[in-house]
C-alpha cells in the first residue's frame, strides 16, 4: 500500500499493543483507510496475489492469504465512525511487523470501540486501558465532538472508567465530566422525545432486534446520519450466525 501511495493506518490488536501494552494472538490485521481509497487498495492486494472481497459494502473489505486475512475498514459496522481526513492528522508512527507505520489515533480507536457492546464482544475494557495509558495525550474536546448526539455512549465509558480505576478518576478532565453532567441535567429538566426510536441497534446488531421487530421501535440505523440502508441492515443481521 505504501508503494502504491495509498494512505492507511494500522489499528486493532497491533495498535492496542503499542498504546496499552496488551498483547493478543490474532489471525487478522486491521487496516483503516478512507472509503475513496478502498478500490485502489483492493486492486493492489489482488495484484499481489491476495484473494479479496467486499465483505460488507457499508464498512468492511478483506484480503486473504491462507488462513490469515487483512481487514480493510473504512467505517464502523453500525454505519457510524467514518474514516475521514481527521484520522490522519494526529497519527503516531511505530514499528509494526518490521515496518514503520502510522497508527490509528487513540481518540478514533475509542470512538469506534465505544459502540461495540455485543453479547459475544464488549470493547469497554479496551477503552478503559487506552484511557489509563493515554489520558494526558487525548484531545478530549475533539473526542467529545466525535460522538455528537451520542455523547451518552462516551459518558457511559467515562463513568465506568472511574469505577474501574478509582485512583485514576482525576485523569479525565473535570470540564469534560461537568459538561456531560450538564447535558444530563438539561435533558432531565425537559420533556422526553416523542419519537419511539431504539438506539440500541447502534451498539448491538442482535440484542435489540426484539425492540424493532416486536415492540414497534424505529431502528436508529435508518437515520440519515447513519450510513446504512435496509439492505445493509438485513445482510449485517443475517451474518450474526457466523459469529456464533
Descriptive terms for the model:
3 domains; alpha/beta; Beta Polymerase, domain 2; 9 helices; two-stranded antiparallel sheet; 244 residues; 16% strand; 5-stranded mixed beta sheet
Question: Ends: how far apart?
Answer: 33 Å
What percent strand?
A: 15-25%
In one word, what is the shape? globular
CATH class of the largest domain: Alpha Beta
Task: Give the total of domains.
Answer: 3
In the CATH hierarchy, the architecture of the largest domain is 2-Layer Sandwich
CATH topology of the largest domain: Beta Polymerase, domain 2
What would you report as the Rg, rounded to the nearest angstrom? 19 Å
> What is the N-to-C succession of helices and strands?
EHEHEEEEEHHHHHEHEH
Structural class: alpha/beta
In percent, how helical is the residue content?
A: 25-40%
Overall pLDDT confidence = 96
Tally of DSSP β-strands: 9
Number of helices in the DSSP assignment:
9
Biggest sheet descriptor: 5 strands, mixed
In spatial order, strands of the major sheet run 1-2-5-4-3
Query: Which consecutive residue ranges, at least 5 long each, have pLDDT under 50?
Result: none
Summarize the structure.
The chain is α/β, with parallel strands linked by helices and 244 residues long. Helix content is 36%, strand content 16%.
Your description of this structure?
- With 244 residues, the chain is α/β, with parallel strands linked by helices.
- The chain has three domains: 1-104, Beta Polymerase, domain 2; 118-190, no CATH class; 197-243, no CATH class.
- Helices cover 36% and strands 16% of the residues.
- It contains nine helices and nine strands.
- The strands form three sheets. A five-stranded mixed β-sheet has the order 1-2-5-4-3. Strands 6-7 form a two-stranded antiparallel sheet.
- The protein is globular and about 60 Å long.
- The mean pLDDT is 96.
